[in-house]
Amino acid sequence: MFEQIKRLGADTAIYGISTVLARLLNFALVPLYANILTTAEFGVVANVYSYVGFIFIFYSFGMESSYFRFASSKEIGEVKDNFSTPYLSIAFVSGLYSVLMLLFAAPLTSVFQIDVSQSKILLFASGILFFDAIVMIPYASLRLQRKAKFFAGTKMFNIVLTVILNIITVYYLRWGIEGIFLSNLAASVCTFILLLPGVVAQIKFSFHKGLLKELLKFGLPIVPVGVSGILLQLVDRPILKLLMDDSAVGIYQANYRLGIFMALITGMFEFAWRPFFLSHAKDPNAKSIFARVMTYYLAISAFIFLALSFFLEHIIRYKFFGKKYILPPEYWSGLEVVPLVLLSYIFSGIGTNLNAGIQIEKKTKYLFPTSLSGSVTKIVLTFLLVPHFGIMGAAYATLLGYLMVEISLYVVVQKFYYIEYEFVRIGKLVLSVAIAFFLVKIAGVGILMKCGIFLLWCYSLFLIGFFTKGELQRVKNLFLKTT
Hints:
This protein is mostly helical. 81% of the residues lie in helices and 0% in strands.
């Protein structure tokens, strides 16, 4: 079991190192925007991108998941069929959608909650959606072939180029919001060009009708799931815009982005997890492996959660070089949302683990009701809580929405793919984290005391018996090798 999980860890590390570097570079755009754009302009960017994320679900229409399922099993058609059919399908549909968006950009501004004078943003958005859609299958192919290094390198290239272009257009040329979207479009085009040789090597210009039918049968039920999922992630921005204003959206979005480090953990895990569980689904000890992976994921997430909850605020309030903050003081009112955002990302990662049973057993029909439970919970609670608690209400609604998804998903999956999770170990972990977190919050201690509590929490995991004897021995062996 350990060797199999170790392989998952190796792939996660490759995805992770590049993802960490790329996301950190991308995160550099937050202070860039915060120190140049107004909070209202920042809010417009966040709001439009939330709509872009929602629309992208219809550009992909479940084909990525379908590709993974059938390309990995090779049940129907040849290797090139399994690449070409989903790829050409996405290219055709996304091209049609983007042409329509180009033609009707001005009327669509009201749908996107922006002024008609900003219609050029939608022109750029249509291109971003198209090029991001047509690299989806090539990226999935790289993951399935375990070409993690090339996958990671191209992702890194995209982010680095995006950051550089943003610095040029937003900081030097002062093109404002339009510069942000133009930079994203240019980076998406360049990434497509970089992946084009791989596309040419695998494609043939024909549809396998039988395969297409099965791809749609498997993937289309995922579309409503994607809609619910993206609503769960992003619907709070348009609602905040409706109930408050662009400035509130900007403050909320800037602080939400501070959860990037937890997003990195869940993102790294997701990239490596799907190919891993599909390749080990038939192993006799598969369920034990999956349970252990859940425990390790939560342990790593707990470490990141406490570290960020304790120390991130001090970093944000520090004036670097005596001149600039990461976020200017007008954004600090939103710092309280960060722990809730971190917890939301943790629950998202739990759902990624639970999703293995649904994919293995081909029970994708259950994804929609479980996802819908979360999105409906979030929408209702956002409308109820924001008028009373402002942006904190949106953060609470997000956390409770994710919690609802994972509870319902767990109940459903356990009925047809039962896994005996290590609840005793997980319970010890959760209790220790809760005690440390609330001790710091209630006592209002300074940074030195926070350091002490954090170190004590790390040591407490050994005292309460969180680690197994086998894990302790491996840690000991590793320590002996390095000394």
